[in-house]
Amino acid sequence: MTARLLVPLVCCLSLGCSLGQGEGEVYSSRLLAADCWEGAYDMRPDFFAAVPYRSTLQIRVQRGSDLQEVSDGLAVTIDDVGIIRGDGQVNKLDVDLSVGLPPGVELPGSPPPTPKPEGLAPLVHMALYLQRSCHNQNTVLYAVDGTIKFQALFSGDPNETDAVDKFTDATFDIWVGDPRDAGIGHPADAIPRELLSRVTGSFRFYFERGQPGQPFP
């Protein structure tokens, strides 16, 4: 499986990062994680961070401010903030946006997922990491289907001064799973439905420039 499955949340000092304050929820009535978890799951996140880079935005919704390697959290990658915000044109706020694996993700010996038609490729990619709950398993579940809706989205400018443009407010309803369960010879997003977990939730917070409470891995 390629390293692009979970884009590293790298925070350089020259960029800006939000500092953890916000509110949200990440919940599943039946979360499946091999050799670790099967049942209801409620993260109760209390740490929220964002890293803008060019047109992209990395968001982390997490329980606690520890390193990602020892925490439970939700990683969100936005490919193009401007397309969603509109930047003076028709925007995609208050619209259900599709969520899926990023382009180029494939399992060894397997074909890549079928490309989406132009204009329909997911702009948002999400992954649920369970490094605290499943600390011996290195468990990460990737969104292969579902939607996310942004009522508001940070502009991506680390020098932003307008509070309205610093705010992010989103709700999501996604299906996550382990791409390895797709099996050799199948695309990484062809995970059997019975091995997928529905995860719903929301997050809202204001971007604040500065170093995060701890470095991103």
Concise overview:
Helices cover 4% and strands 37% of the residues. The protein is built from 2 helices and 10 strands, in the order βββββαβββαββ.
Please describe what this structure looks like.
- This is Lipoprotein.
- This protein has 217 residues and is mainly beta.
- Helix content is 4%, strand content 37%.
- It has helices spanning 81-85, 163-166, and strands at 23-33, 37-42, 47-53, 56-62, 72-78, 97-98, 124-130, 140-152, 167-177, 197-206.
- Strands 1, 2, 3, 4, 5, 6, 7, 8, 9 and 10 form a 10-stranded antiparallel beta sheet that branches.
- The longest helix has 5 residues, at 81-85.
- The protein is globular, with a radius of gyration of 17 Å.
- The two termini are 19 Å apart.
What's the layout of helices and strands?
Blueprint: E1 23-33, E2 37-42, E3 47-53, E4 56-62, E5 72-78, H1 81-85, E6 97-98, E7 124-130, E8 140-152, H2 163-166, E9 167-177, E10 197-206
Antiparallel strand pairs: 1-2, 1-10, 3-4, 4-5, 5-7, 6-8, 7-8, 8-9, 9-10
Number of strands: 10
State the domain count. 1
Q: Please provide the ordered H/E string of secondary-structure elements.
A: EEEEEHEEEHEE
Largest sheet: 10 strands, antiparallel
> Percentage of helical residues?
under 10%
What's the gyration radius in Å? Answer: 17 Å
| Strand coverage percent | 35-45%
Structural class: mainly beta
Give the overall silhouette: globular
**Tally of separate helices:** 2
For the terminal residues, how far apart are their CA atoms? 19 Å
- Averaging pLDDT over every residue, what do you get? 87
Protein name: Lipoprotein
